[in-house]
Amino acid sequence: MGAFESAARSLRLLAKVEPVDLALRLTLLDLLLRPIGDWSIRPLVLAIAAAGLLVPGWLRRPPLWFALAGLTALRVWTDWPLPDNHAYLISYWCLAAGISLVVSDTEACLALNARLLIGLAFAFAVIWKLVLSPDFMNGTFLRVTMLQDPRFEGWTRLAGGFSTDQLEAHRAALGRHLDLPPSESEPGPALSARFSRLADVMTFWTAGIELALAAAFLWWKGGPLSRARHALLIVFCATTYAVATVDGFGWLLIAMGVAQCDSRLARTRALYVASYALILVYREVPMASLIADAVGGAGP
Amino acid sequence: LQTRSWEGWVRFLPALLLVGVALHQIVLASTSGLSPWSGGGFGMFSSTDAGAARHLHAFVIRPGIQREVRIPEALQDWERRVVTLPSDANLRAFALALADLPMPDHGPATAVRIQVWHTEFDPVSLDPIGRILRSLEFSLEQ
To answer: How far is Cα A22 from Cα A261, in angstroms, rounded to an integer?
Structure first.
């Protein structure tokens, strides 16, 4: 109980930090917890991020943020076309931080950029999922990914009802290297109705909440949809990253969410910080796997 | 607060960059086979066609002989980039590098053929189906 109260008090204290400072600190922490780039870029990014957190007065220095924007952009350039979405978004966000710190209305500029970057990122994600991708809305993508991607393993065993052996059998079938006509290949193990229903629900949930997020963040500020944006983003982070541990992207979204919480929204800021901590717990504690182990990973 | 004139537009620079890069990614995905997961278009977790799920077969051709090339470790990072974005320029540059690899066959290579494969999955059974995404043959003869 003492630990819980202490955590709650810490959250309340963090919520009193100015939104700009809190958003920038969470961004630097993201860079430290999920380092980017190879040996030529990573040490510099880590050093600058650590200096921004530790050296008094450096957090709001524009050159620090322009340096981070440059280094993260250099990483995208040198690794092109391999970097993931997080690499691009963190570069845009560091640039937005640098720009916000040189203009006369820092808080408004950072909040505007946070809203646009989140809204646009989810808008393009929705365009891919609903329009451009041939295998998302029919459920194929999540069926394959839940079976094949190790980041989904705990959730797939727990919610899909697979034993470790069953999951391995599906992975072996999906991973066959087939440069043959389909008729010459052996069929894989059958999918359970429970797993198929789960994949369908997750497909529609993902598309729905991402569409709602895009609309809420791009909607004109003050509209009804816009007012729901913080709740939507916190729900998205608390649910999505419990299943898919893509922590760096989640932390970045939260830092951008915090940047839009003015002084009246202290409770929302506290919820964002709690979500940030929750994603760290998701990363470090394989809860779904532990529960699946405890219940025995019963078959469907 | 009075806003300086340049402040009006510079604050939109990050968002404009995001839109520009994301539209460029969609164009490259539709014209040059860029994987939806890559290129900054926010297509991750939308398709099974991730760059890491692709592979290639390369053949060095000499008169009367066609030999498949085993990609050496030193070229495997380049190979990842080529399968992720199998544009003509990337395939051509990679083909030229493969043509220079030592082979047991005699005589100059006349062409290099590269096939980039990706895996599709049957929507009902999830049986994987290998498909050629791009296939190009580059003549090495002047």
So the answer is: 10
Of A89, A103, A140, the CB nearest to B48: A140
C-alpha torsion angle, residues A20, A24, A26, A29 (rounded to 10): -160
Other beta carbons within 10 angstroms of residue A113's beta carbon come to: 26
d(CA A290, CA A293): 5
Q: Inspect the interface and report whether the beta carbons of A174 and B125 lie closer than 8 Å.
A: no
Given a contact cutoff of 8 angstroms between Cβ atoms, the answer to whether B85 and B31 are in contact is no
CA distances for A64 relative to A47, A61, A69, B130, angstroms? 11, 6, 9, 47
Q: What is the pLDDT of residues B66-76, one digit of tens each?
A: 999 999 999 99
CA of B53: which chain A residue's CA is closest?
A175
Q: Is B129 on the interface with A (CB under 8 A)?
A: yes
Binary contact (B126, A188; C-beta < 8 A): yes
Question: Could you tell me if the ipTM is greater than 0.95?
Answer: no
| Two tokens, residue A111 | 């909040």
Our CA-based measurement puts residue B85 at a distance from the nearest CA of chain A, in whole angstroms, of: 7
CA angle A286, A291, A297 (to 5 degrees): 115
Task: Kindly state the tokens that stand for A188.
Answer: 């894989």
DSSP reduced 3-state for A68: helix
**More confidently predicted of A145 and A12:** A145
Interface test with B, best of A77, A86, A88 (most B CBs within 10 A): A88
CA distance B18 to B14: 6
Pairwise CB contact (< 8 Å): A141 & B18: no
Outline where chain A has alpha helix (H). Answer: 2-15, 19-33, 42-54, 62-79, 85-102, 106-126, 140-148, 153-160, 164-174, 193-218, 224-227, 229-243, 247-258, 266-284, 287-295
List B residues 41-80 in contact with A (Cβ-Cβ < 8 A): 41-49, 51, 55, 57, 80
Instruction: Reduce the DSSP state of residue A123 to 3 states and report it.
Output: helix
- The arithmetic mean of pLDDT across residues B47-61, rounded, is 91
What pLDDT, in 10s, does the model give residues A167-211?
A: 888 888 888 766 655 555 567 788 888 999 999 999 999 999 999
